[in-house]
Amino acid sequence: MKKITELTFNNTYRKLPEEFYHIVNPKPFENPFLISLNPQMASEIDLDAAGIDEEELAEYLSGKKLIPGSKPIALYYTGHQFGVYNPHIGDGRAILLGEVVNSKNKKWDLHLKGAGPTNYSRGFDGRAVLRSTIREYLCSEAMHYLGIPTTRALSIVGSDEKVERETTETGAMLIRMAKSHVRFGSFEGFFFRGQTKNIRILADYVLANLYPQYADNPNGYRLMVNEIAKRTGGLIAKWQVFGFTHGVMNTDNMSILGDTIDYGPYAFMETYKSDFTPNHSDHFGRYSYKSQPSIGYWNLNKLLQCLSSLLSADEIQEALGEYREAYAESYLGLMAKKFGFDWFKDGDKKFIDDTLELLEEKGIDFPIFFRELSGVTFDASVEGTEVKKIGKNWIDKYIERIKSDNSDEKKRKKSMDLVNPKYVLRTYIAENAIRQAIDNQDYSEIEKVRKILMRPFDEQQEHEQYSFKPPEGAEVKALSCSS
Questions:
Q1: Domain check: are 114 and 160 in the same one?
Q2: pLDDT-based confidence at residue 483 (cuts at 50, 70, 90)
Q3: pLDDT for residue 217 is more than 80
Q4: Cα–chain center distance at 248
């Protein structure tokens, strides 16, 4: 393990032409202090989290001191936001400190959010607030332990600096870790400028660094985009299965690796609503829960258009087909596991669709219903309150269906409990951690929640209350993009 001053960097993106980024140093807080350090992610970059000098570490993790070997840059990208192309995006409140290579030769970007203004800030302050950093820190970890591909978070650094958003809030910084921060939108600016040379340079970079298994293949571009399509389809299928709604599926928020990136006004589904959107700016429901699969397809199509100088029309259609197939296969496969089906039979898709309609009609809690479902037995024993709400007619049909598999009840329950989490990051749970941090400068709830979410499928009796529905008045509500 290493001190933070001893990390190994290989800043590959900095080696690209100057059109790809802007060289800039973070604007540090005057008095930064460490709020949380994720020991799992510290170990990923060989950082020794034991016996650290927290004051010095906070200075490095907030950019007040530059980590030796890091070469900070703000990344250039554009994108379609709510369906409209915006040429003025880029890293406006985040800076890529550098790319750390660990002892296993695995690379991690260290991306500092809230690091101050860059050339892409459009006159804004470039800051993040404590509220949003806590939400991203907790959710990216929750997603990882659910098995959903995601960026992760290394640290939160706090300050006494005031930041103006909807109200005056406290500034904070978060280090996001990702295998890469290349996005669909990274290609769009060059495409709309007609810079096909830079498109090829970026495609070759992605091929060599992120999809090296295809780098020496004469069909490398085709194989790469097919893989991107499959990963994106599989990712969004998992969002749907676990009830996660991103809230801002702009093309600049789509990772070229098929990872979840940019946690803003996200939410996990509580009471099932197919048109649920957690973003109060999404007045027409473009990024609603039910729309996410089609938006993923739309976004992928925009990426493929940017690569049309490298791909044939048939190859573009092939990749879009790979997305559809990957989404359908992953979604239906995972839903079968959620319902406890050993395999798909005729009529199962309709049964699943009809079940979701009933959940919506009867106002049933999505995560609790599926967690309780494993407790339904062949002899029609039903204990779960949310399952009972769906009605005897449905329960009888469900029992008939699971009996037809001739599966062992104990094995079925065990396998269902491994895909239906008991603990998800409900909005009120994150809000409780936020309120304790802001109102009382008590950051212990952040770490407590993070540890609970590391074991989402386990029966953690000592933390049972974290699996409950929200208290009255604390149901998930639409949030702002500054979240």
A1: yes
A2: low
A3: yes
A4: 11
What is the rounded distance in angstroms from the CA atom of residue 383 to the CA atom of residue 415? 19
Using one digit for the tens of pLDDT, what is the confidence trace for 413-436?
Answer: 999 999 999 999 999 999 999 999
Residue 481, in any domain of the structure:
no
150 belongs to a structural domain? yes
User: pLDDT category, 50, cuts 50, 70, 90?
Assistant: confident
Q: What is the pLDDT of residue 473?
A: 83
Question: Based on the domain organization, do 323 and 404 belong to the same domain?
Answer: no
Q: How far is CA 106 from CA 26, 43, 96, 179, 262, in A?
A: 25, 12, 17, 8, 22
Q: Whole domain around residue 411: which residue ranges?
A: 340-417
Closest CA to 365 of 337, 393, 389, 349: 389
Q: Using the structure block, give the residue that is written with the tokens 């996410």.
A: 292
Query: Tokens 């491994």 map to which residue?
Result: 418
* pTM metric for this prediction: 0.97
Number of domains in the chain: 3
| Domain final position from 155, 178, 201 | 178
Residue 198 falls inside a structural domain: no
Active-site annotation, residues: 252
Q: What's the length of the chain?
A: 483
What is residue 445's predicted lDDT score, i.e. its pLDDT?
Answer: 98
